[in-house]
């Protein structure tokens, strides 16, 4: 009888070596692959993408157990205590999140989510989200929020997916972040919106939010350092459907 050997593990970074591995993966994806400059503390010689928020955050790591425990995915998480230490949430550099801050809900910010190129299009992102779901449940988080990016800075080239988000997935007024330098998103009239094409052009991370009932803030933000258009995603964990909890809350290899 064969025994299933899990491929992946998800855990929080426990030491400087773990953090360095996450920052190295971020450098590979955000700087080398996507051509961005990276955060303010990025070390191009060492090949590590970093900023001032890293030291006040936790870093969730996706580990490939069959590849020498290599870090092949990561996302950065910050709670209110971390934001207090840092002086703000990272999202506040681009979006007004005062509706979230005044909600008295338990908040968790996600950021710098990325996967090694070899692990996209399969179960790796799902496994990373499963690990995140465990963390959310353990800490009784009410609201997840954070930036998610479209590659490129031309909003017209992204008119279909941006319009779809704005028309079909706008956050409720009481929980709606707003871009500090709004790039309009509602660029295509409802009758001309091709929702299938829009979803095909939507990044996997944003689609993961949407599958769980996530909503989007008002306006995008042009992030010149990372050469992308950012949207702010908000997910009320109380709205998770039973199916979503089954998909994202289970343990899989």
Automatic annotation (TrEMBL):
Belongs to the acetyltransferase family. OlsB subfamily. It catalyses: a (3R)-hydroxyacyl-[ACP] + L-ornithine = a lyso-ornithine lipid + holo-[ACP] + H(+). This is L-ornithine N(alpha)-acyltransferase. The keyword Acyltransferase applies. InterPro entries: Acyl_CoA_acyltransferase, Ornithine_N-alpha-AT. GO terms for biological process: lipid metabolic process. Transmembrane segments: none annotated. One of its GO terms (molecular function) is ornithine-acyl [acyl carrier protein] N-acyltransferase activity. Catalyzes the first step in the biosynthesis of ornithine lipids, which are phosphorus-free membrane lipids. Catalyzes the 3-hydroxyacyl-acyl carrier protein-dependent acylation of ornithine to form lyso-ornithine lipid (LOL). Keywords: Acyltransferase, Lipid biosynthesis, Lipid metabolism, Transferase. Its EC number is 2.3.2.30. Pathway: Lipid metabolism. It comes from uncultured Rubellimicrobium sp.
């Amino acid at each position: 009888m064969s025994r299933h050997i899990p491929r992946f593990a998800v855990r929080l970074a426990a030491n400087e070596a773990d953090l360095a591995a996450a920052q190295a993966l971020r450098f590979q994806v955000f700087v080398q692959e996507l051509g961005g400059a990276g955060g303010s503390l990025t070390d191009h010689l060492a090949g590590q993408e970093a900023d001032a928020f890293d030291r006040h955050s936790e870093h969730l790591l996706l580990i490939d157990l069959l590849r020498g425990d290599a870090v092949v995915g990561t996302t950065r998480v910050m709670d209110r205590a971390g934001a207090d230490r840092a002086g703000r949430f990272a999202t506040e550099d681009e979006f007004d999140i005062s509706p979230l801050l005044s909600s008295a809900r338990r908040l968790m910010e996600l950021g710098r989510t990325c996967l090694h190129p070899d692990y996209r299009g399969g179960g790796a992102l799902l496994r990373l989200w499963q690990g995140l779901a465990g963390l959310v449940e353990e800490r009784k988080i009410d609201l997840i929020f954070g930036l998610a990016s479209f590659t490129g800075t031309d909003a017209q080239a992204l008119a279909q997916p941006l319009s779809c988000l704005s028309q079909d997935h706008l956050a409720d007024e009481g929980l709606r972040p707003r871009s500090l330098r709004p790039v309009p998103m509602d660029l295509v009239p409802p009758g001309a919106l091709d929702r299938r094409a829009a979803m095909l052009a939507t990044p996997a991370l944003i689609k993961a939010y949407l599958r769980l009932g996530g909503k989007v803030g008002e306006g995008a933000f042009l992030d010149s350092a990372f050469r992308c258009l950012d949207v702010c995603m908000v997910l009320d964990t109380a709205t998770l459907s039973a199916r979503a909890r089954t998909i994202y809350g289970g343990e899989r290899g």
